[in-house]
TrEMBL record:
It comes from Romboutsia maritimum. Its cofactor is Mg(2+). Catalyzes the insertion of molybdate into adenylated molybdopterin with the concomitant release of AMP. Residues 131-263 form the MoaB/Mog domain. Belongs to the MoeA family. Transmembrane segments: none annotated. This is Molybdopterin molybdenumtransferase.
Length: 297
């Protein structure tokens, strides 16, 4: 082996005259190449480095570049799923050189593939001012008690969001529309509309949202629970039409999309459509979301 690779020691690192790199140096190279913001790192052990979240936030993985990187022999990287909601201190990825010595040419190939992109990073949540518009004649006339408001407030509050108000509207599209626009004029950065999201004749919330002149992204999602979800943008203010399942299920489409909204990601129709693969909740007796298969893309 020594005759083939002509190994010599320099500053406690192993190099060779045949263009070979020691596993530990290779792992450092891959870490520096792929790691984005808000990460900490384990010590190197046998050519392996772990990536650890240094903040609470949303894990973003460049899935296509990760795939290309893993097509190179003798190096690897494994991560949690893209858009995984993480807490500070959670291990989110690991990379290593597989043999003791790796060809320098393979690391150069990795550099060409990754370029200036970063495969792994954590994006912090940005708390928003939230307006809740709850619709329905039965709630408006106090024949039933509103259960939507407390659920929405609890979910957004865990991200540090401020609910600046809740308005309860009858099934009148003009009143609903005006309530949405009023919250936006008050500085709301996210509008959550609850009630009236089905296809019954008196369910006019989707129409009211459209008539604000907001740009509709989708009315409907391939996520269960959450098929009758609506997303639109009034300029840069997201408007979410939240279906009734949010009252009864611990985790729904609202939880999935909310975390991305709170990193200021502009969600597209294709983003929503991609959730079809994995968008079926198993309704486990004990919910472990996000540490489960639901909506992992």
């Amino acid at each position: 082996m020594y005759e083939i690779y002509k190994v010599f020691i320099k500053n406690y690192r192993v190099y060779t005259s045949e263009g070979m790199i020691h596993e530990n140096d290779g792992a450092i190279f891959l870490k520096n190449l792929t790691a984005g913001k808000n990460l900490e790192f384990s010590e190197i052990k046998e050519g392996k480095i772990d990536f650890i979240a240094s903040i609470d936030g949303l894990l973003k993985i460049d899935v296509n570049t990760l795939f290309e990187l893993n097509c190179i022999d003798d190096i690897m990287m494994a991560t949690l799923h893209n858009n995984f909601e993480v807490k500070k201190g959670l291990k989110v990825a690991g990379t290593r050189v597989i043999p003791l010595l790796v060809e320098e040419s393979k690391l150069n190939e990795a550099k060409k593939i990754v370029g200036d992109k970063k495969i792994v990073e954590i994006v912090p949540f940005k708390p928003k001012k939230v307006g809740i518009v709850t619709t329905g004649n039965e709630i408006y006339h106090k024949r039933i008690v509103d259960k939507f408001g407390p659920v929405i407030e609890e979910k957004v509050s865990k991200y540090g969001c401020e609910v600046i108000g809740q308005v309860i509207c009858p099934d009148d599209k003009d009143v609903i529309k005006d309530s949405i626009l009023s919250f936006i004029n008050q500085g709301a950065e996210l509008i959550c509309c609850t009630g009236g999201m089905s296809v019954d004749p008196d369910d006019v919330t989707p129409t009211a949202i459209k008539e604000t002149n907001a740009k509709l992204v989708t009315y409907g999602s391939p996520i269960l629970p959450g098929a009758m979800f609506l997303l639109a943008y009034y300029n840069n203010v997201p408007i979410m039409g939240i279906p009734g399942c949010a009252m009864y299920h611990k985790t729904t489409v609202f939880d999935v999309i909310l975390s991305r909204i709170l990193i200021d990601e502009k969600i597209t129709k294709k983003d929503i459509a991609a959730y079809g693969h994995g968008g079926l909740c198993m309704n486990c007796e004990i919910c472990t979301y996000p540490a489960c298969n639901f909506t992992k893309i």
